[in-house]
Specification:
6-stranded mixed sheet, Rossmann fold, 2 domains
């Protein structure tokens, strides 16, 4: 592979193809033959001066941030500190532009913001300094549509105006039409091609590779849903992480019917992850304010076997034989799946025939090798293992929070088809939060749209605002899918509303002369009493406030 200066190369391939490994090698993270990998005419590994010209941004942001020379997890810092520590010697105008473009607020405390907002801060810290080479490995997975589009536009300007060379590894193709100047495709560690985009588009069969998404069918509730409570019912829910903080969810009320495939959408920080955690019973809420399948989400333990929650934080969401086991441990996928299958059969809730058939179906659908060792495979392959273990139990309610971010296109479509069949055949209900809308046009039956913790729309997708123009035959030929355009329009309207609201808040204040502060003169300290008449005795000193030993002054100083 050879890429020219100023290129924007999109690196694609299936999970486990070697994309992340290739990016790490180009970034100088692994030793290789000096002549094999050259960056800016220099050896990628041997020449340490490349660190001033090359930046590698990966999805694992908690380990890729430096503060004051030490690797510190993002949750330990305030944004203002990070900006100060990373902007030394950088043009302040560039810093301000990136802060505005990424929608970062200096007052954010990273212990309380969403993953998408933390991701914006990571990107801000890495892009403040102008590099010549940018290696981007799945860094937009947590960003909402608008933040992702703004970042892509900025990167295009960097390549066109400053000659920055960009290699962008991603499985998210929403809004990428026309962005890349080159496309590289890697399969099983072999570079199949790395060509300018115009050469690929000139292929005779290029048009045949683009297919229109099918039209979604109308939603039909399960036959046994009559007379049963809805799958999810939230009533007047207001929730905040700490007293005195702004509410993450504000007087929220909505219902999701049984058998629905509900798409949960909203900008970063809208409250999507918080809502899914409360539905999953992860935090205490008032009785009857959050009900799932007719039970109280936090208080009724019957829901433990009826709900499956899958989140992006997969290292703490997987159980093997009843114990939480990090995915990086040296286990084979087959061992973990077999032990979990035995546990399901042993509990007596499911027959062995059902469990074995479901296991075989999931392994085939996710294209998994049961001999994979979990500490040796890619993030996408580990994600498949999480999905296998979580979906093996036939749950009635599936709560999914950005679980497809590491999956390639084929695996993502296979998972969506499986979830559709779960709803149609078993009457299961899925609530799926994602910013990846590629290939989703005909998938959701319902949509829940959150803005700042409030539900602005909840109902069938067909009756959503703008759906009549944005879906079906009236959809614009944007090349990225009509659902993408619909949700993007909602987020743009939300951003414009916030801009106008912020503008209205800047009202000129009347100039009032300052009131002088009146400071009383300090009081004269009282005269100490004369010493006792018995001068032969040493004065006994009362223990001070910090004198834990209650005796000499040396002990007090030591404490």
């Amino acid at each position: 592979m050879e890429l020219p200066t100023g290129c924007r190369c999109m690196l694609v391939g299936a999970n486990g193809a070697g994309k992340t490994t290739l990016m790490s090698v180009i970034g100088g993270k692994h030793l290789c033959k000096e002549s094999a990998v050259r960056v800016l005419g220099r050896s990628a590994f041997e020449d340490t001066t490349l660190s001033a010209d090359l930046a590698l941004l990966t999805g694992n942001w908690t380990h890729t941030v430096a503060f004051a020379g030490h690797n510190v997890p993002y949750q330990a810092m305030e944004v203002s500190q990070l900006i100060r520590s990373n902007s030394a010697g950088v043009d302040p105008a560039r810093v301000e532009r990136l802060v505005t473009l990424l929608g970062v607020e200096r007052s954010w405390n990273l212990t309380t913001v969403s993953d998408g907002q933390r991701r914006r801060v990571q990107i801000l810290c890495k892009l403040m300094k102008p590099f010549k080479i940018l290696l981007l490995d799945e860094i937009t997975t947590d960003l909402d549509l608008l933040a992702r589009q703004d970042l892509l536009n900025f990167l295009r300007e960097e390549s066109e105006e400053r000659g920055v060379s960009i290699v962008y590894c991603t499985h998210i193709f929403d809004g990428l039409d026309g962005w890349a100047s080159h496309i590289a495709y890697i399969a099983k560690g072999e570079m199949m091609f790395a060509l300018p985009r115009w050469l690929l588009e000139a292929r005779p069969d290029f048009a045949a590779l683009l297919t229109e998404p099918p039209t979604g069918a109308a939603f039909t509730p399960p036959a046994d849903a009559a007379g049963k409570p809805p799958a999810v019912k939230v009533t007047n829910l207001t929730w905040r992480y700490k007293p005195g903080q702004p509410a993450q969810l504000d007087n929220l009320s909505f219902e999701v019917p049984r058998g629905a495939r509900c798409l949960l959408v909203g900008a970063n920080g809208a409250g999507k992850t918080t809502l899914l955690r409360l539905l999953g019973g992860k935090s205490m809420v008032p009785v009857d304010s959050v009900q799932c399948l007719g039970y109280n989400a936090f208080h009724d333990i019957e829901l433990n076997t009826m709900i499956s929650m899958l989140s992006g934080d997969w290292t703490r969401q997987v159980a093997c034989v009843g114990n939480g086991v990090p995915f990086q441990a040296d286990f084979s996928i087959g061992y973990m799946a077999e032990e979990f299958a035995k546990a399901l059969i042993r509990d007596g809730h499911y027959t062995e025939t059902l469990v074995r058939a479901r296991l075989h179906r999931l392994v085939t659908l996710l294209d998994m090798d049961l001999e994979w060792r979990l500490h040796q495979v890619s993030d996408g392959q580990r994600r498949r293992a999480q999905l296998l273990l979580k979906l093996l139990r036939p749950s009635q309610l599936l709560l999914m929070d950005e679980v497809t971010t590491d999956l390639d296109v084929v695996s993502r479509q296979a998972l969506l088809q499986f979830l559709r069949e779960e709803c149609d055949e078993r009457g299961a209900t899925v609530i799926y939060s994602t910013h990846i809308l590629d290939g989703l046009d005909d998938w959701p039956s319902h949509v829940l749209h959150l803005i700042n913790g409030k539900a602005v729309y909840n109902g069938p997708l067909a009756t959503a605002p703008g759906a009549a123009q944005g879906l079906g035959p009236n959809a614009s030929a944007s090349g990225s899918g009509s659902l993408f355009g619909l949700v993007k329009g909602w987020l743009l309207a939300e951003r414009e509303g916030e801009r106008l609201a912020a503008k209205d808040m800047h009202v000129p204040c009347e100039t009032t002369p300052p009131t002088p502060m009146i400071i009383d003169a300090p009081a004269v300290p009282p005269t100490p009493p004369p010493p006792a008449a018995d001068a032969d005795k040493a004065p006994v000193r009362a223990p001070g406030k910090f004198d834990r030993f209650g005796s000499g002054s040396s002990s007090q100083r030591m404490y």
